Predict the 3D structure of the following.
Amino acid sequence: MWSILGISILLVAALIVHYLLVAQGRIIVGPETYIILMGISTFATTAYAGWSDGQAGHPYAVFIGMGLLAYMAGIVVFSALARFRHRADLKAFQERAWVDDLHGVQFAAFLAIGLVSALVAAAYFFLLGFFVPYDAFQSLLAGGPALMIEVYNQLRETSSSGGAYLGLGYVSQFKNVLLPLVTVLLYFRQKVRPSLGHRLLFLLFLLASVLSLVGRGARFPLANFGALFLIIGTARYMFPYRFTRTQLTTIAVVFLILLSVLTLMMGARGQRKWSQHPLLWAPFQVVERVSVGPALERYEVYERFLVHSEPQWGLGIVEELEHVLPGRINYTLSNRLHEMLYGNPLGNVSLDIWGSLWYDFRWWSLGLLFAFGGFSHLFYVRLLRGPKRFIRVVTLSYAGFILGFATDLQVLILHGFVTCLIFLAIIWAVRQVRRIRG
């Protein structure tokens, strides 16, 4: 109990230091903020779960708390080494003129990538043979809400674990990463170059993105895109092209309604409703699914698996990376953990960053977390100090968001961090070829 209390006090002090000395009273729209927020949520949930089980100073909660402290210490140290002054650097970035790279050959390149991504998404759903929300709605008309919920969840599970191998991880790079990224870029293009044609192109890609994100029935990709769009659109460094209050409210309400519709079609699935009103229940359920639920699930993983395992010394990471290779659909650790918790291997319970590091390195991983804190911070520093091009800034913001919410290396790759960097490299190469040719 006293160890948890002491770590909690140190975490509060570390947050104050980060806010006053590193962030200097401004929100850092970068991976470190997302990791700190998710980490604190995981620490609190794990500590509470341990306390409920009669272990007030649960060792896994202690490890997560110490890991967070090491991570934030890395941020502070690397910030000092980089001589980063957030207010000054942010002001200097805002005062520089934007380089409009949303036209010409660069526009043609990212638009072509967007079109290919849309075609890949369409081909995927054609081969899959169903579109979950549409088929569930048809069931609602035919047999009522109960049949809709049954069909929705059955097809959703089938799209994840049944049928022929369709390379979902690779398809997701197009439909869940590149297509939404191009959509955000098109939003800023119509802000910089306002015209009816540019606005219609953005709306067309926005519709394509939403359809591709909800087609398998999962809410997370849509919630992820909505949160990302709102964060980039309100970031100080996007001045003067930030959302107005009306735009911010409209976009938030639209995404909230869409999430509420998906939540209603999915049903409660045994989860307690915080409110009978879907617009209130849906966001609470999404937050629970993103933060509290996984933390409790991984607490069980620790109790039933991690506490009995031996350190892998990097082999766990190697195994994760092996399963990113094409066609690797064999029985993985995440399948084993799903079977351990739920009785069947037709699902995934992956280790988060804390579980992965504990599984591989135990307490030695505190040094890795210190270095990762420095890397996360320097990622944001580099964003502000590098060229002020729309494609670069938006893509790095997108990549930083993915980095901040990645639970392990496999997820980091499959959720698009590497894809964003490849996308940026392609645009850079196109720009260099254009420059050489004059």
Remarks:
- The mean pLDDT is 86.
- The radius of gyration is 22 Å.
- The chain has 19 helices and no strands.
